[in-house]
Amino acid sequence: MQHVIVFIEQRSGQTRKVTYELATEARKIADALGGKAHAVVLGAGAPAIAEQLKGYPLDVVHVAEDPDVDKYFLDPMVDYVEAVARETGPALILVPNTMLGRDVAGRLTARLEAGLLSDVTDFHFENGRAVGIAPKLQGSTVTGCTFKDSQYGIATVRPNAFSAQAGGSGAQVVPLAKPSGKQYALTIENDVEEATGEMGLEEAPVVVSGGRGLGGPEPFTTLLRPLADALGGAVGASRAAADAGWVPYSMQIGQTGKIVSPQLYIAVGISGAIQHKVGMQTSGTIVAINRDGAVPIADFADLMVVGDLFQIVPELTNLVTGAKAHA
């Protein structure tokens, strides 16, 4: 494999942070392999995303504003990405590890007779090959896998595993021709998005996360939620809190949970073991609140607040709310 191709997940000109994370990582991998970094963006609003991607270190952005992409289920997307892959030549294809991304990755794997690495959180390079690093067996082990005897490889990449860094010199935007002779049967009749009332952890600019030090489920609602709301963020949790049944696993941050990269991460009552650190270490500013100043998180937090979290957090919430009221 020599080149890198990124599948861009977007809808009506709106995309996720992972788009720019993969655009950045694609450049690093392509340089290591000696090839070029490509991206494929499809559907209504694709040209707007392509313009944004010109600010990232890609060589080529392939674009198709084809209404079939939005009308039919999955197959048009797979057709376009397959066409780019076959035209580009041997390549590693990066796909977001999302519901849509996993579906696209599975079909591409079959079409290209490629290998598949899932939930990758890092890449290493050995003997000119990209090695995907991924946690397995609920984080009890971390695997390193590569591709053998295959022109193409597919890797689904966990959101927030990498940092997005703009700085492209202006990628070449290339319109894609519609694959010929294709007929699609499975249409999308309705697109229903369930409103949860919660901001997604992966997209939140601020995350307030709680651990074993909270002592039970109630403080997540009465203590952390008001602070997160005041800061315009979301509430997360450590694995210890999820294992105890205090919160659902959908809130877990860490090696076996979600990886977040907010501008501000506030860890409340969390010791900060390596499994948790993996899930939030790329955050902009890390603030830890704990009664024990010698917990592991103190070694990498930007600010360590030692004291009673049940007194500190409400006071912090009041200060934030008061400041917003007078702004």
Taken in chain order, the helices and strands follow as: EEEHEHEHHEHEEEEEEEHEHEHEEH
Q: Describe the main β-sheet briefly.
A: 7 strands, parallel
Query: How many H/I helices?
Result: 9
How much helicity do the residues have? 25-40%
Count of all domains: 2
Radius of gyration: 21 Å
The beta-strand count equals 17
CATH class of the largest domain: Alpha Beta
CATH architecture type of the largest domain: 3-Layer(aba) Sandwich
The CATH H-level superfamily of the largest domain is HUPs
Outline, from the CA principal axes? elongated
First and last CA, distance: 54 Å
Q: Which structural class matches the secondary elements? A: alpha/beta
Q: Which fold does the CATH topology of the largest domain refer to? A: Rossmann fold
Strand content: 25-35%
Structural topology:
Layout: E1 3-8, E2 10-11, E3 14-15, H1 17-33, E4 37-42, H2 46-53, E5 60-64, H3 67-71, H4 75-88, E6 91-96, H5 99-112, E7 115-120, E8 122-126, E9 129-136, E10 141-145, E11 152-157, E12 172-175, E13 206-210, H6 218-231, E14 234-237, H7 239-243, E15 264-268, H8 274-280, E16 285-290, E17 303-306, H9 309-325
Parallel strand pairs: 1-4, 1-6, 4-5, 5-12, 6-11, 7-11, 13-14, 13-15, 15-16, 16-17
Antiparallel strand pairs: 2-3, 8-9, 9-10
Helix pairs in contact: 4-5, 6-9
Describe the structure.
The chain is built from nine helices and 17 strands. It has a seven-stranded parallel beta sheet, sandwiched between helices. Strands 14-13-15-16-17 form a five-stranded parallel beta sheet. The chain is 31% helix and 26% strand. The chain is α/β, with parallel strands linked by helices and 327 residues long. It has helices spanning 17-33, 46-53, 67-71, 75-88, 99-112, 218-231, 239-243, 274-280, 309-325, and strands at residues 3-8, 10-11, 14-15, 37-42, 60-64, 91-96, 115-120, 122-126, 129-136, 141-145, 152-157, 172-175, 206-210, 234-237, 264-268, 285-290, 303-306. The protein starts with a strand and ends with a helix. The mean pLDDT is 89. Strand 8 (122-126) and strand 9 (129-136) form a beta hairpin. It folds into two domains: 3-175, HUPs (Rossmann fold, 3-Layer(aba) Sandwich); 206-325, Rossmann fold, CATH 3.40.50.1220.
